[in-house]
């Protein structure tokens, strides 16, 4: 982002804060900007710019240091938000080297590009850290001082990124922060993430387009918040006088099983659980149909069973607290997917 006007974000998205926003997009043989199409001046022709601000996308990749230097030198941004990653935890076990390259070394490449371009004194850098750093949790709830114990290649790569950000902050006096964000969701969540998989599947079942879907560990417990609340926290971190790292979370814990139950309840279905382990199924009390099954292929080689964040530091120093409650989040995601599947059943 460049040419930032520092006003409080009322829409909870970065595009509402800055007069000029730049993004990096990987080259693909098909359009891969569906989740930001509403920000185009003309979504049909992908004309850049919108009623909110000027938006410009640049082809680039976190694995290509040359392009990062070129883009940053051209834009000369005031704030950089590194939200780029191979961010699917389960897939990181299959793409461990790539995940390390993008999530770990990609962060280093960005930081080095800032230094190479001589922007250490003028840029503020936000690193999207993650609750997956805590993995096999060492205390409950998890806060900024909780020891890390990552349980995936994704978590391990993000741990390197976390510490290299701190190293650049201390070695070069760069204003760089880690936002240790717990799970944050919205209707724009990727389709292969568990919350969106649930909301999409429930919408399809509600519309008669699907009978049943499969999940992994139903008893994984997560601290789920709304992405728009968390983006505001990211922005607030870069508006402080001194750079500090913050945990951003709701402090509430819900299981995957509970997310399923709330989603179905919103469309008038009560899920009753039968069986154990991989034989467990979720049956609709009203119709007797099985709508949910358990499939071992969705389990991780090393599970993270329980994540609960303590964001009291963010409340004290940033004045931040979450606004969207868990049930409201679930309902918003299901409603959005019902509308999506009505217009495009193959979405």
Automatic annotation (TrEMBL):
Keyword check for Lyase: yes
InterPro entries for the chain: GDP_Man_deHydtase, NAD(P)-bd_dom, NAD(P)-bd_dom_sf
Domain NAD(P)-binding: 19-333
Keyword Methyltransferase: no
Catalytic activity: GDP-alpha-D-mannose = GDP-4-dehydro-alpha-D-rhamnose + H2O
The entry's keywords: Lyase, NADP
NCBIfam families referenced in this protein's UniProt entry, alphabetically: gmd
PANTHER family per the UniProt record, alphabetical: GDP-MANNOSE 4,6 DEHYDRATASE, GDP-MANNOSE 4,6-DEHYDRATASE
Protein's recorded name: GDP-mannose 4,6 dehydratase
Gene name of the record: GMDS
């Amino acid at each position: 982002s460049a040419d930032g006007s520092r006003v409080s974000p009322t829409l909870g998205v970065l595009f509402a804060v800055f007069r000029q926003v730049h993004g990096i997009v990987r080259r693909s043989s098909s359009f891969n900007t569906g989740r930001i199409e509403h920000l185009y001046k003309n979504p049909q022709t992908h004309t850049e710019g919108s009623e909110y601000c000027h938006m410009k996308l640049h082809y680039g990749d976190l694995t290509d240091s040359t392009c990062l230097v070129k883009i940053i030198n051209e834009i000369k941004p005031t704030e950089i938000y590194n939200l780029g990653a191979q961010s699917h935890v389960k897939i990181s076990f299959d793409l461990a080297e790539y995940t390390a390259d993008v999530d770990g070394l990609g962060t280093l490449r960005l930081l080095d590009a800032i230094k190479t371009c001589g922007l250490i004194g003028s840029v503020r850098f936000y690193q999207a850290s993650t609750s997956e750093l805590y993995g096999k949790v060492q205390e409950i709830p998890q806060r900024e001082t909780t020891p890390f114990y990552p349980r995936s290649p994704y978590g391990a790569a993000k741990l390197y990124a976390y510490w290299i950000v701190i190293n650049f902050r201390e070695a070069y006096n760069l204003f760089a922060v880690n936002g240790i964000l717990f799970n944050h969701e919205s209707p724009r969540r990727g389709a292969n993430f568990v919350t969106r998989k649930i909301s999409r599947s429930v919408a399809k079942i509600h519309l008669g387009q699907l009978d049943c879907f499969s999940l992994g560990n139903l008893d994984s417990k997560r601290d789920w918040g709304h992405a728009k609340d968390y983006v505001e926290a990211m922005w607030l971190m870069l508006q402080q006088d001194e750079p500090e790292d913050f945990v951003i979370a709701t402090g509430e814990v819900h299981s995957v099983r509970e997310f399923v139950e709330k989603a179905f309840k919103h469309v008038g279905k009560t899920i009753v659980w039968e069986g154990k382990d991989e034989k467990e199924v979720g049956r609709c009390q009203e119709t007797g149909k099985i709508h949910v099954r358990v499939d071992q292929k969705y389990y991780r080689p090393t599970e993270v069973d329980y994540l609960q964040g303590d964001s009291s530091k963010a409340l004290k120093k940033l004045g931040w607290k979450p606004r969207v409650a868990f049930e409201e989040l679930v309902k918003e995601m299901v409603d959005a997917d019902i509308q999506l599947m009505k217009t495009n059943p193959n979405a």
